[in-house]
Structure formats: structure tokens, C-alpha cells
Write a structure and sequence with these properties.
The protein is α/β, with parallel strands linked by helices. The protein has a domain of about 130 residues: 3-Layer(aba) Sandwich (Beta-carbonic Anhydrase, Chain A). It has eleven helices and five strands, in the order H-H-E-H-E-H-E-H-H-H-H-H-E-E-H-H. Strand 1, helix 3 and strand 2 form a beta-alpha-beta unit. It is globular and about 55 Å long. The chain starts with a helix and ends with a helix. It binds zinc ion.
Length: about 220
């Protein structure tokens, strides 16, 4: 059997094991979804989002792109955030980066990467914003790891800049935005413990889209 055919064999076994645990599993899946989490992660094949969170199908709404970026002109990620907040009413939005991220690594190199240039420029922008801190780290690997973390923090800020998140939080006190980094070498998920309320307050000094008139008071 080829590797390709094996996929369908694996699928049959997976269906059987699911039905063995819960005979109605697919019936429930077919009705609707109520995930509490939107997870924006990297495409990297070594980061199986649901698995590392210990969650099953139906529990996490997932958006993935190279280096888990949240760019305001990227219709795809913006649509995912909008849908997750306005239609699914997720309570948590997670930006999950990972150490050993190839996208972040490439953004640290002086190289023309063609189509990847404009995408990875977003990471170079993160570097520029935090240049003093990053350049003070002499060990290149430690600097790379720190850029992975700072990239997650900046993408969380980009999530907070959206009208959907700001308006929903004002009305419902959710979603809360979190930044995580997954360590491929250990499997451990690290919470960067972003101060969401503090970040929201700072962001709304300039990017307030709630229409509540809060900006004028600042
Ligand atoms: Zn990556």
C-alpha cells in the first residue's frame, strides 16, 4: 500500500475508533460547532493544534499561516477572526507560535525570498519595533527564540486592533486574547501571560473602533 493509500486506511480506522468511543460522534459533529477557542497558528507540520491542547474535533476553530501572522490586509485571517467572534462567539483567541519556526528564522536572514518577502516583512517589522532588546541578546539562538515570542505578542496586538474583538469584549467581556509558544523539542505549551486588559486599553488609545467615544476621553 502506498503512503497515499495509507491515508484512507488510517481514516477508516479513525472513524471506527471514534464510533467505538461514541456511536453518535459524527451525528453530533454534523449538526453544529461550539468551539470556545480560535487558535491562530503556524502551518508547521510539527504543531498539531488540537492534539497539543488535548482537544477533539469541534473544540478549536483553527486558522494557520506561515509564522502565525495577523495582517490587517489579509482577508483570510480577518475573516476567520470575524467569523469566530461574531458567529461562533469564541471566548478565547489564541495566537500560538512555536520555537524553531522556519518563517521567523528566514526573516532573520539577509536573503531575497521572492513571494515570501512581503509576508515575512511583518516579522522584520516586529524585529524593528524591538530592535534594542533583540540586539542586546548576544546568543543568536536566544535572540531567535525571543523574536518568536515577540512576534506572538505583536500578532496578539493585531488581533486586539480588530473591531470584532473590541466590540465583543465591550459587550460580553470576551473574547480574551492569549499568546502562547509551543516548544517542539519538549511538547510544552508556554503561556506568555499577556496582560489582555492592559493591552486593550493601550491599543484603544489609537485604534478604538467601538464607537463608544472612549478615545476622546483619553
Ligand atoms: Zn512556524
Amino acid at each position: 500500500m502506498s503512503d497515499y493509500q495509507q491515508v484512507f486506511e488510517n481514516n477508516k480506522q479513525w472513524v471506527a475508533s471514534k464510533l467505538n468511543t461514541d456511536a453518535d460522534f459524527f451525528k453530533k459533529m454534523a449538526t453544529t460547532q461550539h468551539p470556545k477557542y480560535l487558535c491562530i497558528g503556524c502551518c508547521d507540520s510539527r504543531v498539531p493544534t488540537n492534539e497539543i491542547m488535548g482537544m477533539d474535533a469541534g473544540e478549536v476553530f483553527v486558522h494557520r499561516n506561515i509564522a502565525n501572522l495577523v495582517c490587517n490586509a489579509d482577508l483570510s485571517v480577518m475573516a476567520s477572526i470575524n467569523y469566530a467572534v461574531l458567529q461562533l462567539n469564541v471566548e478565547h483567541i489564541v495566537v500560538c507560535g512555536h520555537y524553531s519556526c522556519g518563517g521567523v528564522k528566514k526573516a532573520m536572514e539577509a536573503e531575497d525570498l521572492g513571494l515570501l518577502n512581503p509576508w515575512l516583512r511583518n516579522i522584520r517589522d516586529v524585529y524593528r519595533l524591538h530592535m534594542d532588546e533583540l540586539n542586546a541578546i548576544k546568543d543568536e539562538h536566544a535572540r531567535y527564540n525571543r523574536l518568536v515570542e515577540l512576534n506572538v505578542e505583536e500578532q496578539c496586538i493585531n488581533v486586539i486592533k480588530t473591531a470584532a474583538v473590541q466590540k465583543s469584549y465591550l459587550a460580553n467581556k470576551y473574547p480574551v486574547v492569549h499568546g502562547w509558544v509551543y516548544d517542539i523539542k519538549s511538547g510544552i505549551l508556554k503561556d506568555l501571560e499577556i496582560d489582555f486588559e492592559g493591552a486593550l486599553h493601550e491599543i484603544q488609545k489609537i485604534y478604538d473602533l467601538t464607537g463608544s467615544g472612549m478615545m476622546q476621553k483619553k
